[in-house]
Design brief:
single chain; 473 residues; alpha+beta; tRNA-splicing ligase RtcB; eight-stranded mixed β-sheet; seven-stranded mixed β-sheet; 33% helix; globular
């Protein structure tokens, strides 16, 4: 990171040089910048070399190195001359976070937290290779990939009112199930309504502190309110799509006239047949993730009903952080359509954006930030400056500071569970190794990440949430 130059308190730049078409802009405070591996700057500089990139190669405060693109990377591409990169979306297509209201208060849930944890653990399958009771035949699979959360609602998983609080109203247009491989579909047939492994979770959380009263009122949040947060994505299907297209893009690069600074940055021109095919498959992956979170939501509602029979769980919001989407943004005073890659970065539309539900237009989009299971999560509000700063993008979580392998060498899962229990945080997980991999100490300070995002103008701090129950993959 020795090449980084400070521009503002939480804005750093690596000027364009060599093969870079645009500069790298890093949004972080000095502590976060110094903690970033050199691989972050190297990957961000490689992204800046891709054809058709617009503005800059952006790095969010929670960034760490990933596959090709840094996790916490944002890049916009011109539709005519730009590219789409499977590595710029990631293997877990449309991984995202949704939050649900419960109408309950912290003290009510605390009294029955163990019972609730058991009910949620029974209801929502989690862990490596986790499967659920739903098996989709190929016709159903194809309909789901086309319909997303709308398909799920039509099949009894939630109500139409949920769709108003999901980006794209629960279904991304342009998905084509015919370009998704049979292998990808088979991997997903028994995985709908499941969390998976890694950093995925279902958490019961309470609001500890409000920072933006206007946003909190619009989002229906008050101190000691209890929420449910769900973090998961497109499971095996998304991973298979990413694997297959990364390989195909890498092989095709020379014939497409693309010189890759890193093979992991495999990409294809947006207007090429391969580029269009990937976009159609990726959109099917987005719909899979939206349907999956909708089905997990349905199971969480059933579990809550076992413990709190009269409680409803209306949706606050659902937003993804591993996507490539066609959006309209202002560039040098001109409104332009651009393909925005967000890999480990959350869409953060500011006040007045036409795609927001009416009740959010005055304050901006809810930006849901997942923390580690022992610290905190956040609800931010999209900033008016975010479009200019990073094409309406913000951080997505704490960001890892330690590899999973290193975490398992340092912590034992049962010790993490016990230490969290001493702090009144209940963990349920099918495997203790996964708990060790996701130990709170393996992550950056999420509060520092949020503060940097706010100072940089990416989003405004809305509410701080603390965990009570965590169902961990």
């Amino acid at each position: 990171m020795s090449q980084v130059q400070r521009r503002e308190e939480c804005v750093w730049e690596i000027p364009a040089r060599g093969g870079m078409r645009v500069p790298v802009i890093i949004y972080a405070d000095e502590t976060l910048v110094r903690a970033m591996d050199d691989k972050v700057s190297e990957q961000a500089m490689n992204v800046a070399m891709l054809p058709g990139i617009v503005g800059a190669s952006y790095v969010m405060p929670d960034a760490h190195w990933g596959y090709g693109f840094p996790i916490g990377g944002v890049a916009a591409f011109d539709p005519e001359h730009g590219v789409v990169s499977a590595g710029g979306v990631g293997f877990d297509i449309s991984c995202g976070v949704r939050a649900l209201h419960t109408g309950l208060r912290r003290e009510e849930v605390a009294l029955r937290a163990q019972e609730l944890a058991d009910a949620l653990y029974r209801a929502v399958p989690a862990g490596v290779g986790s499967t659920g009771p739903v098996h989709l035949g190929m016709d159903e699979m194809n309909a789901m990939l086309t319909g997303g959360a709308r398909w799920a609602v039509a099949h009894g998983y939630g109500g139409l009112e949920d769709l108003d609080r999901i980006e794209e109203r629960g279904c991304v247009a342009g998905a084509d199930h015919t370009v998704v491989s049979e292998r990808a579909k088979k991997r997903q047939q028994d995985e709908m309504g499941t969390l998976g492994s890694g950093n995925h979770y279902l958490e019961v959380q309470y609001v500890e502190r409000i920072f933006d009263q206007d946003a909190a009122r619009a989002y229906g949040l008050a101190v000691d309110d209890v929420l449910v947060s769900i973090h998961c994505g497109s499971r095996g299907l998304g991973h298979q799509i990413g694997t297959e297209f990364l390989r195909e893009m890498a092989i095709a690069a020379p014939s497409l006239g693309i010189k890759l600074p890193d093979r992991e940055l495999a990409c294809a021109p947006l207007r090429s047949p391969l580029g269009r095919t990937y976009l159609a498959a990726m959109r099917a992956g987005i719909n899979c993730a939206l349907a999956n979170r909708q089905m997990v939501t349905h199971r969480a509602r059933e579990a809550f009903a076992e413990v709190f029979p009269d409680v409803d769980l209306p949706l606050l919001y659902d937003v993804s952080h591993n996507t490539c989407k066609l959006e309209t943004h202002e560039v040098e005073g001109v409104r332009r359509e651009l393909y925005i890659h967000r890999k480990g970065a959350t869409r953060a539309f500011g006040p007045g954006h036409p795609e927001l539900p009416p009740e959010f237009k005055a304050v901006g989009q809810p930006v849901l930030i997942g923390g580690s299971m022992g610290t905190s999560s956040w609800v931010l509000a999209g900033s008016a400056d975010s479009e200019r700063r990073a094409f309406s993008s913000a951080c997505h979580g704490a960001g890892r500071s330690m590899s999973r392998h290193a975490a398992t060498r340092r912590w034992r899962g049962r010790d993490v569970v016990r230490e969290l229990a001493e702090r009144d945080i209940i963990v349920r997980s099918p495997g203790l190794r996964g708990v060790a991999e996701e130990a709170p100490g393996a992550y950056k300070d999420v509060t520092g990440v949020v503060e940097a995002a706010e100072k940089a103008g990416l989003a405004r701090a809305g509410a701080l949430l603390r965990p009570m129950v965590c169902i961990k993959g």
